[in-house]
Amino acid sequence: MADQLRGSLVRIFTSGENNIAGAGFLVSDRHLLTCAHVIAEALNIPQSTPEIPTSTVNFDFPLVSPGTMLNAHVVYWQPVQRGKSPFMVEDIAVLELEDSKPLVGCKLKEFQGPATGYSQDLVVALCGINNLIA
Q1: What is the sign of the dihedral through the CA atoms of 45, 47, 48 and 49?
Q2: Is 19 exposed, middle or buried (0-12, 13-18, 19+ CB in 10 A)?
Q3: Which of 28-32, 44-48, 107-111 has the lowest mean pLDDT?
Q4: Has domain 2-132 been given CATH number 3.40.50.720?
Q5: Taking the C-alpha atoms of 24, 26, 27 and 31 in order, what is their torsion angle to the nearest 10 degrees?
Q6: Domain spans in the chain, listed from the N-terminal domain onward
């Protein structure tokens, strides 16, 4: 599992300055999952911005190909919503890769849990995976 996790990890950079804004994971052959606040930091926009950001997001796979910059754009956006219920769906961003470069050595992160399949009514809370890395 550690190899799969290492190959799916992405490092997201700020626009222009190339500082690290945060991390995410490759969850399909064309999609990344991260937090909306990471994308807000990367694009220098308010965390609570309601509209889907349209700017390009820069990232790399630091444990597979560090410094090989790739591009993605946001396709799903659920921004941070301060003062709402802690169980509200928020702080989620899904990005789609813009580059057609092959992702050699990159692996999909398969999150497993008690539910299988997909349902509009399924509520998922992903709080962290630090315990998976020894």
Answers
A1: positive
A2: exposed
A3: 107-111
A4: no
A5: 100
A6: 2-132
**Per-residue confidence (pLDDT) for residue 74, from 0 to 100:** 97
Interval 86-99 mean pLDDT: 83
Return d(Cα 119, Cα 62) in angstroms, integer. Answer: 33
19-44 mean pLDDT: 93
**pTM passes above 0.90:** no
Q: Which of 78, 63, 65, 59 is nearest to 20 (CA)?
A: 59
Read off the tokens for 75: 């396709």
First-residue to last-residue Cα distance in the chain: 11
